[in-house]
Specification:
- This protein is an all-alpha fold and 410 residues long.
- It folds into four domains: 1-76, 434 Repressor (Amino-terminal Domain); 85-208, no CATH class; 211-314, Serine Threonine Protein Phosphatase 5, Tetratricopeptide repeat; 342-410, Serine Threonine Protein Phosphatase 5, Tetratricopeptide repeat (Alpha Horseshoe).
- Helices cover 72% and strands 2% of the residues.
- The chain has a two-stranded antiparallel sheet with strand order 1-2. Strands 3-4 form a two-stranded antiparallel sheet.
- Helix 7 (95-103) runs parallel beside helix 10 and helix 19 packs antiparallel against helix 20.
- The longest helix has 24 residues, at 163-186.
């Protein structure tokens, strides 16, 4: 299938076209790729020709491992918005500055006298709260500019503080790095997001809080999961669950963290195509949510009955089971005050589930709702772009074409 040219003159490729290019680089036939990745020749042909969506991470990972490339070489991340509005341009404008601030971790801060005199722990605490509020509101254009000066000021405070204050500063710094990680990840800058995750781990260790350190390892497991290193992700998860299981009379923070790790385990197994294992860990997470009895947000990690219900939709989507995902999604009732970040991701999952289930009109409506809640994150989502592109190639319609333009699929 020929490459499409956007109005800007930039070539717009589908995941299948990138897959074909990577295959050709290795001088493999389609049959060789099909054999190495464990898919049929017909499936490879359909994906490369854009007739079958190549959006599921497990499938992308299978091809990436066969071709010995990073998954983003297939998905095209980071996405460069061709038709970005003012907020879209603002969302990506701070990426370089956030990257520089992350790179400075562990280096001498060399604060000026003015910076040293301005260290104010309550004020830093409020700024971290503001940054995380922007993140959970899916306001990438607002959170980006906040992060570089905040990270700099926290790095200065960490260097100048001691004792309990130093440990609290590092807890704030870990939270700010988490915010930076999510900002970069949602914009498709996976390598920079991985670097931010390492900073979360290092800063968490300086807090000397065992639960805070375990919470950081939740993100660390996610990094290995993303590149298909399922055994490494499982080892991190199992170690954390063993430590949490050894706590006598665990408080709500430990119960919440235990449930979150079971959810991560279920996702890891779903992408490793172990459906029974994924369901087993989901049930353990549901038990933790029932024990907790409420939605919590410890260490900015949402866990509870609502989040568990959302993951129960995500898992069948990960496995391409549209009918199961749609059935579960229709039972979900989100609290009015639930974060826009999580609500938008839920609607993305619904859109993909409807697409797998052959309900294309409902899929478009779900993607439009996700875009309304979180415009930049939805438009930068690799799965959304690929699914919309596949729908456009097989069914051109008004709302679909307009959305495709905004996400860069046409």
């Amino acid at each position: 299938m020929p490459e499409r040219i956007a109005d800007s003159g930039v070539i717009v490729e589908s995941n299948g076209q990138r897959l074909a290019r990577l295959r050709a680089r290795r001088r493999w036939t389609q049959q060789r790729l099909a054999t190495e990745a464990g898919y049929s020749l017909a499936a490879v042909r359909a994906m490369e020709q854009g007739r079958r969506s190549l959006d599921r991470p497990a499938v992308v990972l299978a091809f990436a491992q066969a071709l010995d490339c990073h998954p983003t070489e297939i998905t095209g991340a980071p996405y460069v918005p061709l038709n970005a509005d003012r907020d879209g341009q603002a969302a990506v404008a701070s990426v370089a500055a956030v990257r520089r601030a992350i790179l400075r971790h562990g280096r001498p801060a060399r604060p000026t006298e003015q910076e040293a005199a301005a260290v104010d722990l309550p004020e830093l605490r409020e700024r971290v709260i503001e940054a995380n509020a922007c993140r959970q509101a899916a306001a990438l254009a607002a959170s980006g500019p906040l992060l570089p000066p905040l990270l700099r000021d926290l790095q200065v405070a960490a260097e100048l503080s001691g004792g309990d204050q130093r440990r609290e500063v590092y807890a704030l710094l870990a939270s700010a790095y988490e915010c930076a990680m999510q900002y970069l990840y949602k914009l498709g800058h996976s390598s920079d997001a991985t670097l931010a995750t390492e900073r979360v781990l290092w800063a968490s260790q300086e807090t000397e809080d065992p639960l805070r350190v375990l919470a950081a390892h939740w993100y660390d497991a996610g990094e290995f999961l993303t590149i298909g290193e399922h055994d490494e992700a499982a080892a991190i998860i199992d170690e954390a669950l063993a430590e949490l299981g050894a706590i006598r009379s665990p408080g709500p923070e430990a119960v919440s963290l235990r449930g979150a790790f079971h959810l991560k385990a279920s996702l890891n197994l779903a992408r490793a195509t172990d459906a029974k294992g994924a369901v087993r860990h989901l049930k353990r997470a549901e038990e933790a949510a029932e024990e907790l009895g409420e939605d919590r947000n410890d260490w900015e990690m949402q866990f509870g009955p609502t989040n568990t219900a959302l993951w129960a939709v995500s898992l069948p989507v990960e496995m391409g089971r549209g009918k199961d995902a749609v059935a579960r999604a229709e039972k979900v009732r989100l609290p009015a005050d639930y974060s826009r970040e999580r609500r938008s991701h839920f609607h993305i999952d619904c859109g993909r589930a409807y697409f797998y289930n052959g309900q294309r009109e409902q899929a478009v409506h779900a993607f439009l709702e996700a875009e309304r809640l979180a415009p930049q994150a939805t438009r930068a989502h690799a799965g959304v772009r690929e699914t919309i592109g596949t729908m456009i190639r097989t069914q051109r319609r008004g709302d679909l074409i307009e959305l495709g333009i905004r996400v860069g699929a046409v």
